[in-house]
């Protein structure tokens, strides 16, 4: 996925799902993510006063509010402390818009922190901090481990497929909830393993994935046995696409119910699929998303998702730049062959210019590749490309001079 960090991507996806849950359609089709995974994620809202932040503190689940407990809000170098009310909420009002904020609470020795986020100029921010229910965890730990038995697992209701189209690639995220409905660990008859869709590159696990999971190339494996309950595996990848359409076909080794897909809608992006039975556009955090759902998908059956009318960048400018570079190389070779040099000093200078020319050409090709794979933004790409082309022009001017590179030739070295 180029230089893009995946650690923040999971939080971003969970924020999207958190906002989407307010719709009746989504409430029926998408289950809430695990509360621990949502802990500390800021959510913009319009039901708070401007410049206000509300922090809710719970232990384990939404029914277990932590009341009359101090919560710290760090605003730059300052710290404000407010105790939670009967609903487990601590509200901070009249905060400086644009200042960086972070909520912190220490519950039974467990330090809970939110992500850092700016105080909004309009509306407010809600944050939930989720402490571990240690009593429940202790009971689970005290129970003697059961021996694994043969059994089946499935992909549960919190499984999501997230697609984010870009100019020349589609980012693909799988949030997989592997469910073992038995009361003891189970070993499926076959290894839980699948390959990412054709064309996928940069496949990796995101934070929060089970240590039982691993990635080798485009193949994802999850080693058994599976404990009772759920095992989370979160995978990120990207599929290059230089046109406005892309078909993604995915096979999972176990049954999935229900199918849930979220697509970031850019422009006129459309989603079609034989497995999708319901979909609608939804606004969240100033952006539009396609929320789609379908019925159960049996093990091994292909899930086919087709994106159309996506934004895309024409490859013509990139090929034109590379063609220009090749023309410049050809002219340089021709010029060098037409001007034999008898003097050793001039020959040495010409050699240095030729070496510098080759490095600039390599830099130009690398820049074009980085821009194609989104490792450099458009402003940096345009500025650096102009610098490289200008430097090459200076060097070829110097190589055309029989006597000396002069001041023009030196300019190439300063690029």
Please characterize this protein's 3D structure.
With 415 residues, the chain is α+β, with helices and mostly antiparallel strands. It folds into three domains: 32-138, Immunoglobulin-like (Sandwich); 157-308, Immunoglobulin-like (Sandwich); 316-413. It is built from eight helices and 25 strands. Helix 5 packs antiparallel against helix 6 and helix 5 packs parallel to helix 7. It is globular. It starts with 6 loop residues before the first helix and ends with a helix.
Can you count the helices? Answer: 8
CATH architecture of the largest domain: Sandwich
Q: If you compute it from the alpha carbons, what radius of gyration comes out, rounded to the nearest whole angstrom?
A: 28 Å
Largest sheet: 8 strands, mixed
β-strand percent reads: 25-35%
Low-confidence stretches: 1-11, 19-32, 402-415
Q: Oligomerization state of this entry?
A: single chain
Average predicted local confidence, pLDDT: 82
Q: What spatial form do the alpha-carbon principal axes imply?
A: globular
* CATH topology descriptor of the largest domain: Immunoglobulin-like
Structural class: alpha+beta
Number of beta strands: 25
Compute the number of structural domains.
Answer: 3
CATH class type of the largest domain: Mainly Beta
């Amino acid at each position: 996925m180029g230089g893009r960090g995946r650690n923040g991507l999971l939080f971003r996806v969970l924020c999207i799902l958190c906002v989407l849950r307010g719709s009746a359609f989504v409430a029926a089709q998408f289950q809430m993510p695990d509360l621990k995974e949502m802990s500390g994620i800021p959510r913009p809202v319009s039901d708070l006063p401007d410049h206000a932040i509300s922090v809710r503190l719970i232990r384990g689940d939404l029914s277990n509010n932590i009341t009359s407990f101090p919560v710290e809000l760090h605003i730059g170098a300052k710290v404000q402390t407010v105790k939670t009310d009967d609903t487990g909420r601590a509200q901070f009002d009249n905060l400086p818009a644009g200042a960086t904020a972070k909520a912190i609470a220490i519950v039974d020795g467990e330090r809970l922190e939110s992500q850092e986020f700016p105080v909004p100029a309009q509306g407010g921010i809600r944050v939930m901090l989720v402490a571990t229910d240690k009593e429940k965890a202790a009971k689970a730990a005290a129970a003697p481990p059961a021996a694994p038995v043969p059994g089946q697992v499935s992909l549960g209701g919190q499984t999501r497929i997230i697609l984010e189209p870009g100019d020349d690639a589609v980012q693909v995220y799988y949030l997989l909830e592997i469910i073992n409905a038995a009361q003891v660990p189970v070993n499926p008859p076959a290894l839980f393993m699948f390959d990412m869709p054709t064309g996928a590159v940069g496949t990796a696990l995101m934070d929060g994935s089970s240590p039982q999971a691993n990635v080798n190339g485009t193949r994802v494996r999850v080693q058994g046995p599976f404990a009772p309950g759920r095992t989370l595996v979160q995978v990120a990848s990207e599929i290059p696409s230089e046109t406005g359409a892309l078909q993604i076909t995915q096979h999972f080794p176990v049954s999935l119910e229900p199918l849930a897909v979220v697509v970031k809608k850019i422009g006129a992006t459309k989603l079609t699929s034989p497995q999708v039975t319901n979909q609608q556009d939804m606004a969240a955090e100033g952006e539009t998303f396609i929320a789609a759902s379908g019925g159960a998908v049996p093990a091994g059956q292909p899930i086919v998702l087709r994106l159309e009318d996506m934004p895309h960048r024409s490859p013509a400018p990139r090929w034109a730049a590379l063609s220009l570079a090749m023309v410049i190389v050809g002219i340089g070779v021709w010029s060098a062959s037409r001007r034999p040099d008898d003097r050793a000093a001039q020959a040495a200078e010409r050699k240095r210019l030729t070496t510098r020319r080759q490095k600039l050409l390599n830099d130009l090709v690398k820049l074009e590749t980085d821009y194609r794979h989104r490792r450099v933004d458009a402003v940096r790409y345009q500025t650096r490309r102009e610098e490289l082309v200008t430097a090459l022009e200076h060097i070829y001017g110097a190589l055309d001079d029989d006597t000396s590179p002069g001041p023009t030739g030196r300019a190439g070295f300063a690029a």
